[in-house]
From TrEMBL, chain A:
Keywords: Cell membrane, Membrane, Transmembrane, Transmembrane helix. Pfam families: BPD_transp_2. It comes from Aromatoleum toluolicum. It is found in: Cell membrane. InterPro entries: ABC_transp_permease, LivM-like. The chain crosses the membrane at residues 27-43, 49-69, 76-95, 101-123, 130-149, 179-196, 233-254, 266-296, 316-337. The keyword Nucleus does not apply. This is Branched-chain amino acid ABC transporter permease.
Length: 354, 275
């Protein structure tokens, strides 16, 4: 079936305002969800879940949160790792200090704590913009690095500074096997991706984008810059905080503050830029590019039976990966999501030029 | 068309069902300066309900500053502003929007990354009440509200004849259409007072005619009071009810177009004096 919207007439505004207005898109996304929820758990290997899919899903969620702030509201943040850490450590404390605390509730409370911290560090955005704001959010990064390393209360007075969680379960179902972990992450990511998409296509999202594109005109229309910027910080930090909980609890199991260092913040910012600013899809593309591509590149020499030492492969991967980033940014500065939508636009007419 | 006597303005407009009412906006002795630079000096004028009030003057006369004072972007150091009989205290732009004052900008200030539809929908921001959580669920009230406002926005799109570009990102549109979309965004708020800053700058004759028609229709059909800054004298003299003339931040003329056209100071400011 060709990718066409001929004959698909919209007779109501509700039909026109759907997330996927074109039938073929709806079929494709349904198929993708079917594969993700049903086929993968049956076919995937343990390595695939542990090393590829779970990190991809969690980092895509964090990138999604960051994209709301950077891509939709235009406020640069270098403190993403910090907000992930706040979510993870807050959820950890809720879990160990309160008896019988369910995982989901601890996760949401972790997200809410990250929200509070995010809004607090978002206050400078009311006065400063751009690179200066980036430097201000860097303060959040250094502050949390310090706090979780030095204030032992946060780590439940653990002597090594490392904390761990075990025996996770949701409604009595254990989250122990790779498949269970994968399905849990997938569900959380799907729920948040849908909520984020809804927010960005509603009045809230338009307020954010208005502030991003032209803040004076936005104020004249009646948008309060304070409210718009702080809600963006709040929603973004909440999602990033939840991603932090998943990263610590589900992916790592045991972790120390270095898991949420500045490197993580940069990695997520790159995902958002390469994937596409201001696009929900972009967060997934960016995460796939940064997480999955190096793993694939690593495997390529093996497929062709080229005898290369591990060290050489690792260097090559770095070089090719760097070159690809440069190439994609030159080819399409608006990211992979933009390339995707251009491709779809062309598909609608193919094979005719007009 | 404008050869009547000054007091004939009211009679003339009665024919179209449009009646000029009481003073809605009264500016008294406004002075505004930035550091040592005086942008506006002791300016007083008023705007009556349902009228088209033009502000003209050479470049740098303070016209745009005047609009920025009216909608709260600038705060004058001296003078009083009465809007609907109430004296205004220090206010922010969003408060002016809440009182029903909308505007367009001299340099187009659209949201470039958004579609025409989203830009105009954003204009209805103040009328949309759903909260963050409701919007995240996009269910029930939030979706109902979105559709209700979409209906209103589609009416504006029809009115401005831009149906075919509703899904286009505004950054990709030609200049004349962007100006039209910006008018649409301002109209979406259903303002009682509309401030237009050079809506016809840089347009060709046809585009100017279209824009004039839209301005007159807005004034006529919705009864919106309009304050207009424009350089094209033909347009100003043709569509304005009253004109105020600024030069170097001072008011040098005020009245119906004929009076202003005959005013010695105005002629001097525009044409220079002969020696």
């Amino acid at each position: 079936m060709l990718y066409r919207e001929n004959g698909q007439f919209k007779t109501s505004y509700a039909a026109d305002q759907q997330i996927f207005p074109i039938t073929q898109d709806r079929l494709a996304i349904g198929l993708l969800l079917l594969v993700a929820f049903v086929v993968m758990p049956m076919a995937g290997s343990e390595y695939l879940f542990r090393a590829v899919l779970i990190p991809f899903l969690i980092l895509a969620l964090a990138a999604l949160g960051l994209n709301i702030l950077v891509g939709y509201c235009g406020q640069i943040s270098l403190g993403t790792g910090a907000f992930m850490a706040v979510g993870a450590y807050a959820a950890y404390n809720f879990l160990v200090r309160i008896d019988g605390m369910p995982l989901i509730v601890a996760m949401l409370l972790g997200g809410l704590t990250a929200t509070v911290v995010g809004v607090l560090f978002g206050i400078p955005s009311l006065r400063i913009k751009g690179l200066y704001l980036a430097v201000a959010t860097l303060a959040a990064q250094f502050f949390t690095d310090w706090a979780f390393l030095r204030i032992s209360w946060f780590t439940n007075n653990s002597t090594s500074g490392s904390v761990s969680v075990a025996g996770l379960n949701v409604f009595g179902l254990p989250i122990e096997s790779p498949v269970a972990k994968y399905l849990f992450c997938l569900t959380v990511v799907c729920v948040f991706a849908l909520a984020a998409k809804n927010l960005t296509r509603s009045a809230t999202g338009r307020q954010w984008m208005a502030i991003r594109d032209m803040d004076v005109a936005a104020a004249v229309i009646g948008i309060r810059p304070v409210y718009a910027k702080l809600t963006a910080f709040a929603v973004s930090s909440f999602i990033v905080g939840v991603a932090g909980v998943l990263w610590a609890f589900v992916h790592l199991g045991a972790w120390e503050p270095a898991a949420f260092s500045i490197d993580r913040s940069f990695q997520l910012l790159f995902m958002v830029i390469i994937g596409g600013l201001g696009s929900i899809m972009g967060a997934f593309f960016g995460a796939a590019f940064i997480v999955v591509l190096p793993i694939i590149l690593d495997q390529v020499p093996h497929w062709f039976g080229i005898p290369l030492s591990t060290a050489t492969t690792s260097h090559l991967v770095h070089m090719i990966f760097g070159a690809l980033i440069v190439f994609f940014l030159i080819a399409e500065p608006h990211g992979l999501a933009k390339l995707w939508s251009i491709g779809k636009q062309k598909m609608r007419l193919w094979p005719f030029p007009h | 068309m404008m050869n009547d006597m000054p007091q004939a303005v009211q009679e003339q407009t009665q024919g179209t069902g449009r009646r000029i009412g009481d003073v809605v906006l009264d500016l008294q002795n406004i002075s505004l300066s930035f550091g040592g630079v005086k942008a506006l000096t002791d300016i007083s004028f008023n705007v009556r309900e349902h009228e088209i009030r033009s502000i003209i003057g050479p470049n740098g006369a303070g016209k745009s500053s005047m609009l920025n004072v009216i909608n709260g972007v600038y705060h004058p150091q001296e003078g009083r502003i009465l809007f609907r009989g109430e004296e205004r205290r220090r206010m922010e732009p969003h408060m002016a929007a809440e009182q029903g004052i909308a505007r367009t900008f001299q340099n187009i200030a659209l949201f470039k990354g958004m579609s025409v539809l989203d830009n105009i929908m954003t204009g209805r921001n103040l009328k949309m009440k759903s909260g963050l959580l409701a919007n995240a669920l996009y269910w029930g009230r939030a979706q109902k509200e979105e559709i209700e406002h979409r209906v209103k926005v589609e009416e504006i799109i029809d009115f401005l004849e831009i149906q075919d570009i509703r899904k286009t990102p505004v950054g990709a549109l030609p200049y004349g259409l962007q100006k039209r979309v910006e008018l649409g965004r301002a109209l979406a708020a259903e303002p009682s007072l509309l401030l237009l800053d050079e809506p016809m700058a840089g347009m060709n004759v046809e585009e100017k005619q279209d824009m004039c028609r839209f301005i007159l229709d807005v004034n006529d059909q919705f009864g919106t009071t309009i304050v207009l800054i424009e350089h094209d004298m033909g347009v100003v003299m043709d569509i304005s009810d009253r004109v105020v003339v600024l030069d170097y931040g001072k008011k040098i003329g005020d009245g119906v177009p004929e009076e202003v056209r005959a005013n010695e100071d105005v002629i001097r400011a525009y044409l220079g004096t002969s020696h």
